[in-house]
Amino acid sequence: MSDIKNEKLTHVVSITASDIESQDRVITTILSPHTGKKVEITGDVDEAMKVVLDGERVMLTPEEDRRLLRKIDLYLLPLICLLYATQFMDKLSNSWAAVMGLRTDLHMKGEMYSWTGSAFYLGYLAFEFPASVCLQRFPVAKTVSVFIVLWGVILCLHSVPQYAGFVALRTILGGLESSVTPAFVIITSQWYKKEEVFLRTALWFSCNGLGQILGSGAIGYNLFTHKDSYALEAWKIVFIATGCITIVLGFAIFFHIPNNPTEAWFLTQHEKKLVVERIRSNQQGFGNHHFKKKQFIEALSDIQTWAFFVISLATNIPNGGLTNFGSILMTESMHFTTKKTLLWGMIPGAVEVVGCTLFAYCYRFYKSRMLWATFISAMSIMFLCLLAFAKNTDAQFAGYALYTISPLIFICILSSIASNIVGHTKKVTVNAIFLIGYCVGNLIGPQTFRANQAPDYAGAKAAMVGCSSLTTVLMILLWIYYIRENRRRDALESASEFEMIENHEFADLTDRENPLFRYTI
Fold this sequence. Notes:
The protein is mainly α. It has a single domain, classed as MFS general substrate transporter like domains (Growth Hormone, Chain: A, Up-down Bundle), CATH 1.20.1250.20. Helices cover about 70% and strands about 5% of the residues. It is built from 19 helices and four strands. The chain has helices spanning about 45-50, 60-105, 110-135, 140-155, 165-175, 180-190, 195-205, 205-225, 235-255, 270-280, 295-300, 305-335, 340-345, 345-360, 370-390, 395-400, 405-420, 425-445, 460-495, and strands spanning about 10-15, 25-30, 40, 500. The protein has a two-stranded parallel sheet with strand order 1-4. The chain has a two-stranded antiparallel sheet with strand order 2-3. Helix 3 (about 110-135) packs antiparallel against helix 18, helix 4 runs antiparallel to helix 5 (about 165-175) and helix 8 (about 205-225) packs antiparallel against helix 9 (about 235-255). The protein is globular.
């Protein structure tokens, strides 16, 4: 929260428990720093407001803050990271199965395999908004755990003998998996301070690489090398194994992760109040279960929303292509054997885990995630040029492997949604639009790999380079926008008189409505 100059403070407004008994009650008004118009603060507040009004405000010491952060990390991050590794393993299972005989057994020709990749994201696209609405209306952790168990069941059923059934199951799988990323963004913003969000998001998102290591090596390679000893084809066992792991983790999340800090079984009552104090500086709380039309409209009119959408689209065209065709490029274009493809497939995963975590850790020393993400975006152009234009297959593989640090761009936007988009309905809406861009990009990606361009797929590689270049330009423009907007708000605050509203952080105001909100760069 910005420093308050006493000479500019006219009076203080206190929000009481009786004020929030009615959702429609207007408590007071403030001036929007974006439009200059009056914004009503009503009784329809954030869930965290009920906690702070229930008793006296507690004081958080630095020692308590550090101890509580360690406890939250210990109880939440391991399971979230493991689940995120598993969901990426589920996505890549299609690519591993392709080099184990899936395409032959299901008689795929021409663009048929490309559509198995696109079908997943068609389901994701169709269900993204409904999934986001479910996450707002119902308890977050319990809701996402139900989706996880169901997608594990669907994954086990992937060992079907017909192409049409396989494509249908991929579509359903995409719809169910559409819930996990928005759920984890909400959970991260509930528990962590703005300055902590980027590193935690990077930690769980980089576990995509862990999923690639475990799936390609521990599951894919071992199944392929012993394929003659199984009653089922190796590619079918890939889906059954990953599906069973997913089901177990779904039940673990249901019982282990609380829906918000006030329901945390591992915190004392005092610690629950301390968590609220920790996130006060975020200018947001745990969330609000009511859909607010005004916030929905604001999300659609906010330039951030569409910048996020286009960045997501541009970064995920390469992602969609390489997720489904990475193994095929290694076997057909780089002339690796199937065993070598599965074994070396662990290398990009290791690069992603180490690279994303390392750069996120560097954020602790130079706190500008936009800087790091823009730098990685520029580097990604070089890595994709290696993959696309290098004549040596080792150089091509190096470009492919090094490009796996590019998710840091996606992580930057996810953490920006968590910390820079405020107002729960607005956050859910922007998150959904961002992930629609993710879906569309991943839909387009496999379609850039045309069968008549095999085995080099020159058109797809050129498209990836172009998309990465566009992403870099957009990241720079978004960075400039945040700097200018924060400076404008600082100037506006210093020139204005205002009233102080106690606990305004938990009034479910949006970033455009709250004059004390500043964007994290």
